[in-house]
Model the fold of this input.
Amino acid sequence: MAPVGPRSGDAIFSSIDRVNAELFTLTYGAIVRQLLTDLEDVDEVNKQLDQMGYNIGIRLIDEFLAKSGVSRCVDFKETAEMIAKVGFKMFLGVTASVSSWDADGTCCSIILEDNPLVDFVELPDTCQGLYYCNVLSGVIRGALEMVSMKTEVTWTRDALRGDDAYELQVKLLKQVAEEYPYKDDE
Amino acid sequence: MAAIYSLYIINKSGGLIFYKDCGTKGRMDTNDSLRVASLWHSMHAISQQLSPVNGCSGIELLQADTFDLHCFQSLPGTKFFVVCEPGTPHMESLLRYVYELYTDYVLKNPFYEIEMPIRCELFDINLTQAVQSDRVALLGR
Amino acid sequence: MIGVGKMKQYSNVLDKPLSKGKQEVSLSAFAFLFSELVQYNQTQVDNIAELERRLEDAGYAVGSRVLELLCNREKGNRRETRLLGILSFVHSTVWKVLFGKVADSLEKGTEHEDEYMISEKELLVNRFISIPKDMGTFNCGAFVAGIVKGVLDNAGFPAVVTAHFVPIEGQQRPRTTILIKFADEVSISTSLYMIYLYLEKLNLSPGLPTSIHAAQVLKREARLSQ
Done:
C-alpha cells in the first residue's frame, strides 16, 4: 500500500468536523473551576490538569496518526515540528512554532501564537500559582509516550502570568527503542 | 464479491480486545478467536525478526490457500486485522477506516478504559455498516 | 524564527475586545476534553445521580457565561423577559453558537403546563459516546441540561432541567430530549403574560389595569389549586 503522505495541518483542519471554540473554551473553564472547588489547592489543580492532559494524550495520538497520515518521524526534531505544525493546527486550529533547540537536539520550545483555552480568562489573586493551560503539557507528554518517547513538558512562558507568550519546553528524556519485547529470557 | 470472515483488534500486550464475525462462514467461538489473536500477536512479533534490515514493523499480509490475513498496526501498537477469503479487495482501506472508527467511537468514549475489551454500541453499529460488501467497495475509490 | 511569539497584550481581560465567536477548534479536541470531564467526574462520585448532578454543575457554569456573552454580542445587552422568548433564544441562538445548528425541535410538554422539551436527534456531546448497559438511563446530555439551566436561571427563569434518551421508531439510536420544568412562579407569570397578550389581541384591554386584575385573579386561583 502506498503510504498516505502527511497532510498539512491546514488541510486537515479544513476537512474535519469543527466546533465553535467558545464551547471548548468555556467547557475547559468549567473543568478548571470544578478542580479548584474539589481540590482547593492550586498545586493539586496543576497536577490534576496535567494528568487529565496525559489521559487525553494517550488517546488522542491515535486520532492524530489516523487523520494526519503522519507515520514514524525520523528524529525528535521532526516530531516537534509535527506537533507544532500539524498537531496544534488540526486539534485547536492554531499554529505553533518550534525554537530554542539545544545542541544535541533533545530539547526545544514550542510557542503558541494563539491559545483558545484562555479566551475570557484572567487569573484571580487566589490562583496566581495556577498553570491554567497545564492540560496541554499533559497532552504532549501522553501522546509522545505512546510513540515511545518519554518527555518532560514544562511551561516557560505563560501570558496569563504576565509573560509575552505561551511557551512550552519539551525535553526528550528517553527514547524507548522499539524492538521485539520478549527477547531473552521471557 | 469475496467475503470477510472476521475482524480482530488486539492491544499492545497482545490481548484480544475486539472480535467480530462478519459472515456465515469461518465463524469462531470465543476460545478460538482468543487463540488466533495470541497466535497472530506472536507471529507478527517474530516476523519482525526475519527482516534483514532494521525498522521492520511486521507482517502486513499473509496469504494462504484458504484465507488472506491483512494486518494494520498503529504506531502506538494496537493491531487491527481482518481475515477474509483469498483475494478480497480493499482490505487495507477497510483497516484504515476501522482505525478511524476506533479513534472516534472507542477512544472518545469516556466509559471505555484504554487497553480493555471494547464494548461500545456506536463502534459496533458503525463497524457493522462498514464491513457490508457494498460499503467496502466504496472504500476502494 | 522571526516574529514568533508576538501576542497582543492586554493588561486586563476586560480591555480585550470581545471575540466575534468565529474561531473554531476541531470537534475531536472538544470530544476528548468532554470525555475527560466525564471520566474525572466519575472518579468523584458514588452513583449515577451524583455524576449527573456534577455534569449539570459543569454545564451550568458554561450556560451562565454563554448568556452573558450572547446578551453582549448578539442582543446589544437586551435581556429576554418573556418565557417563550428565552426558550426560543436557547433553542436557536444558544444552540447555534454552541452546537453549530438550531436544535431539532422545541415543544411544549403535553402532560404538564409548565414543561418544555428541546430535542436533538444526535446531541453533539453524545456523538461518540456509548453508555454501558449497567449505567441504565444515564445520559451525558446532563451537561447540556446544565447549560440550559445556567442560561434560564441567570435570565430570571429558574427551572429544573434534565436530559433523557427517547427512543425513535425505526432508528437504532434514541434521541436526547432536554426536559425543562419551570418553577411555579415562572409558570404563573407566564400564564399572566399569555392572558395579557390574549386580552390585548382581542382588544378587550385598552390598558394594563384590566390584565393586571385578570392576572391577580389567576394568581389567586393558582395558589388555591396548589
